[in-house]
Amino acid sequence: MSSLAWVRGINATLGRIAPQWAADRMREVFMTPREHPPRDWELPLLASSERITLRFGLSALRWGDGPAVLLMHGWEGRPTQFAALIENLVGAGYGVVALDGPAHGRSPGLEADPVLFARALLEAAAELPPLRAVIGHSMGGASALLATQMGLRTDALVTISAPAKVISVLRRFADFVGLPPEARSRFIRRVERQAGMPVKQLDVARYQLSIPGLVVHADDDPKVPVSEAQAIHTSWANSRLLRLPAGGHHRLLSDSALSEAVLELLENAEQPMVFALAS
């Protein structure tokens, strides 16, 4: 029996007998990231980086000089997953700072959530020059959107493979691990309590977004449906939607179309961008 089948079996049984126990256990699993070492293709970029430490021990990597671009990886991700994009940004004259999210890499913490990621972006921005752009992948993108509602200032914002609302992520996880309905409801409430914010507030449809933006997603993303990108774009009038026909959840980070679109956004951030680019 696979480990997932075993977890689903336990949750199917104990989730009905002891729903709070199952909810608490799955909340812990959901909010505790695993560490994945960098791939071989990430190592040259890692070797060329400068490791810096920001307030509260937040760790980051830095490359280049020039207008500041701040990057936030996704859940269980790494700064160097942005390797191709970072190389293009530095080559275009930008200075790039890529964070280790809370409880990731060398940043402190044992658990993380979108609110902690958003606060980390705010802390980093407070120590950096005025930001030309903030770019976030997956949960990093959702957290970047949230951070703008918490006071983050940037000339432009890019989300890549990001969910439009966190409740969708929680429901998909609960279904994935086989939580019965009552345990699933308690699981969502426990995540809310730990994050310190009602999950209904973590929804781009409730946000006020006026900065120029770019929403990037692959049609074949197996983790976050491309409909989430459309929802973000619909709620964000001053955004451009770039849908790639392929790229999954991570491979699109190295797609040249992504780098080209980001550089175009940065060059024209002061101009309204209200059209969508379909695949």
Automatic annotation (TrEMBL):
Transmembrane spans: none
Source organism, top-level taxon: Bacteria
Ranges of residues in domain AB hydrolase-1: 69-254
InterPro entries hit by this protein: AB_hydrolase_1, AB_hydrolase_fold, AB_hydrolase_sf
GO molecular function terms listed in the Swiss-Prot or TrEMBL record: hydrolase activity
Keywords (A to Z) from UniProt: Hydrolase
Name by which UniProt lists this protein: Alpha/beta fold hydrolase
Upper classification of the organism: Bacteria, Pseudomonadati, Pseudomonadota, Gammaproteobacteria, Pseudomonadales
